[in-house]
């Protein structure tokens, strides 16, 4: 992909690292000359030290051939302006960090996909790592939904039963669905089906419509 990334803060730099490793063609726009120089020295990418709220700068970055533009600054006003420019230049995929939840609708109305409150997401992940140590790879989704993984023990009420049976018995709440099952000893992961039988040691990937309580986590783990 040809990607334009705006902002080389912590999120932008991590994104550049991922995009470069995946062999994408990356152009960075950052208004901080020192930060732009640091990125240019570290990565073999095109770096523009300029103002991304200028349509001319975005054009110079290659908007006419870009597959995607991703805005990562901590200033929602800047991010919204860049998204507006990207929309006017018909860049196919536009994604933006949104630092204040109440601003998200403005971005969506311009056709952008949004990542809300990245600092809150990190904080929530750290809190859950301490509060619910049995939960792995926690991700907070919009409107309170969650995706997470947990490993079930021998005495879990899920062990030795099918997913459908556990749902019917109410062991798995109606708001939760099992998406995948990983078996470390077999070094494999499979899509979860209703007739999938669960065993001690299985690592389950679950989706929940709302925050899962500590009691429910403890019950599922065993």
Please, could you describe this protein's structure?
With 222 residues, the protein is α/β, with parallel strands linked by helices. It has 2 domains: 114 residues, NAD(P)-binding Rossmann-like Domain (Rossmann fold); 101 residues, Regulator of K+ conductance, C-terminal domain (Alpha-Beta Plaits, 2-Layer Sandwich), CATH 3.30.70.1450. The protein contains 8 helices and 11 strands. Strands 3-2-1-4-5-6 form a 6-stranded parallel beta sheet, with helices on both faces. Helix 5 links the parallel strand 5 and strand 6. The protein starts with a strand and ends with a helix. The model has no long low-confidence stretch (mean pLDDT 89).
CATH class of the largest domain: Alpha Beta
Q: How many domains is the backbone divided into? A: 2
Beta-strand level of the residues, as a percent range? 25-35%
Q: What's the end-to-end separation, in Å?
A: 45 Å
Q: Low-confidence parts, pLDDT < 50 over ≥5 residues?
A: none
Number of strands: 11
Tell me the structural class: alpha/beta
Order of helices and strands: EHEHEHEHEHEHEEHEEEH
Could you please say which CATH topology of the largest domain applies here? Rossmann fold
Radius of gyration from CA coordinates: 22 Å
| Strand order in space, largest sheet | 3-2-1-4-5-6
Shape: elongated
CATH architecture descriptor of the largest domain: 3-Layer(aba) Sandwich
CATH superfamily label of the largest domain: NAD(P)-binding Rossmann-like Domain
Number of helices: 8
> Largest beta sheet, briefly?
6 strands, parallel
| Overall average pLDDT | 89
Helix content: 25-40%
């Amino acid at each position: 992909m040809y990607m334009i990334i705006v902002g080389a803060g912590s999120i932008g730099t991590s994104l550049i690292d991922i995009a470069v490793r995946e062999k994408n063609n990356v152009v960075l726009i950052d208004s901080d000359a020192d930060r732009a120089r640091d990125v240019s020295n570290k990565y073999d990418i095109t770096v523009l030290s300029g103002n991304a709220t200028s349509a001319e700068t975005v054009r110079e970055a290659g908007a006419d051939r870009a597959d995607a533009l991703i805005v990562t600054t901590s200033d929602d006003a800047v991010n919204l302006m860049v998204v507006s420019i990207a929309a006017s230049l018909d860049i196919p995929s536009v994604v933006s960090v949104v630092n204040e939840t109440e601003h998200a609708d403005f971005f969506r109305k311009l056709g952008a996909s949004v990542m809300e409150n990245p600092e809150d997401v990190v904080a929530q992940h750290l809190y859950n790592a301490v509060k619910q140590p049995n939960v792995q790879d926690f991700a907070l989704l919009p409107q309170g939904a969650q995706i997470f993984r947990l490993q079930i023990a021998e005495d879990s009420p899920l062990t030795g039963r099918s997913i459908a049976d556990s749902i019917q018995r109410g062991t798995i709440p109606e708001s939760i669905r099992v998406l995948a099952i990983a078996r470390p000893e077999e070094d494999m992961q499979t899509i979860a089906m209703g007739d999938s039988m669960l065993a001690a040691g299985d690592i389950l990937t679950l989706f929940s419509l709302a925050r899962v309580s500590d009691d429910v986590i403890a019950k599922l783990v065993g």
